[in-house]
């Protein structure tokens, strides 16, 4: 029998049936039934039937009468009775082997009959050579099944389906067997097949298929067997969580009535999994942890190894999310790790790696997280046939990547995992995928990607999932925070906090408090920030979570600095950076570049965990522009000390300062270091050379100086004016001049005046370019010295009113800078007299 293509069918219709209007779409629909059957096409064309009116389903209906007549006249009517019966019985099988047909019909000639049908092209196809399989044309098969139902009657036909289903089940064709057994209404056999294959179906991720099997059972029959209810709950966990938990709770109650200990433990584990896998809300989950305690008191351990293993995995996950302070959690997590590599169940392996990675992240165990990432790479090939497990491993690997601050994974990895879950109709992990993708983008300061992610994931967020919607609002808060829209960030943050609180999940609650605290700090609302930090600290204590404690210290230090509370800032900064260094913490869910770069600058200025601070700066490529506080200890590309002994560092290496090339740098600094015309520089250095020679000398020395300072843009020449780039260069007199400008504002608080005077005197290491005798150096030296003494005296006089002892120390330091300062002597004498130190006052007067 020749097989036609759609194009060939159109050609036949136009040539032999010009009166018919036939479209390619009609032929495509028709061919889904005819499957290339040329005679069937001609029959249809000759009958004048309309393809849009075709009503057969290709399964039980033989189709229009003219097709029925064709099969009966041309094929069926010419066969002997035994062959007819053989065809009728075997037609219940979608695909078959000779052995399967022999077992079903009892006909020892099954192989010969099938081969003869193929040879005669009687709508029978053969597949394979060594162990050939056969199948009837769908329409011929539908015709044969109609004949079988008419001859056997309804009871007989159901018995045939039942017998065929059992044979298929024995041969391993469970899906087809299930269809036939259900069609034959052999519910005990269906139940037996479900219980036999349910675990394997779940193992390969066929949750929907198992749910489909169970949905075919009558509700009354299903309710009689708690194990069927158990598997129905497990099958629905990822797709219909409400139905899953309802079925599992019913199964648990039945198991408890029957004192089925294995059933109670396994159904408890599955109930716990409905919370952790659905990840929508943990409200009500705590009661199941209480129920576990009662169960363990009555029956200390499950009777089978599988249940014992599942119990540890499920209990650890549920406690981590619902009650992270649970006293048994550390022990459970240790058991999970011990069993994670030995357990044969791939689903449990993946869930274990996910949970262990997250727990390690919260506990600040970065080395273990990296170890789990290496394990994930090895485990991925083993789950290549399971899209769900592969996507979950990718999600975990991606999360580990940003939490360890390794930043080695590409964004398309998480995007591909999300598409996989979306195509499978699994919404369970959308919120977590969004969170980790946004955090990864935030670490890169990639705001456009963050916006793209929020726009992409937003429509997929389940509104009825408190955690998913809460995580989405939290990421919106984070995006607005990084965008500088602080009030908008607060609005999203408050919505996020309300939802995760309602979801009764301590970890997201703690992160929400921290994110909101940061938003309130940036918005200049310290009172609300402090309230959220207090709540975050409480969550950190309850969870015993080092990473949240670390984040609390960082935010508290930032808040204290913004409030000018030096002592509190230093306490939290030292505690936070020490913990960060000890735990190798370099990333968090609240990582504001301005905050972190500022804290690093403060840490370097106060000698707090300097190596750790420099590591953070290098890792995130922070620049002085990012930070609200930078000092000489920042890892500047170029650092220059022009006060006192001239010192130069480039690329964190000391540079020999005896080179004549540095004269150009010294003159540039003497004239302010910004926008100095090249003629001014040439006149100062080569005043006895003519203009052309002076300019040539300038170009040569500029080239040499640039090479000395490195390949960066430390020197900028624009419009014939030379500048030091403040983004690349730290210069001590710039720092001192900034302090002197602040002094001109005269802070009203005497305490602040004293602190500012202290910083000014601390920043003055000695005369400008001491030992340099050129006029350009002397002029700058004297001007700077006079400004320093004048402003320091003015600030100290204000300090003297409220803190005379502190003022005495400041006056002494002013005299160290200028031994001839009459104002400093007078202030020192006043201070001594006010403290009753008259002998020291007379000594100061005598000097």
How does this structure look, described?
Strand 3 (638-641) and strand 4 form a beta hairpin. The strands form three sheets. The chain has a four-stranded mixed beta sheet with strand order 5-4-3-9. By secondary structure, it is mainly alpha-helical. Helices cover 68% and strands 4% of the residues. It is elongated and about 135 Å long.
Output the CATH class name of the domain at 733-846: Mainly Alpha
Oligomerization status of the protein chains: single chain
Read across the widest sheet, the strand sequence of neighbours is 5-4-3-9
Q: Spans of 5+ residues with little confidence (pLDDT < 50)?
A: 53-62
Rounded to the nearest angstrom, the distance between the terminal CA atoms is 125 Å
What distinguishing features does this structure have?
847 residues, mainly alpha, 4-stranded mixed beta sheet
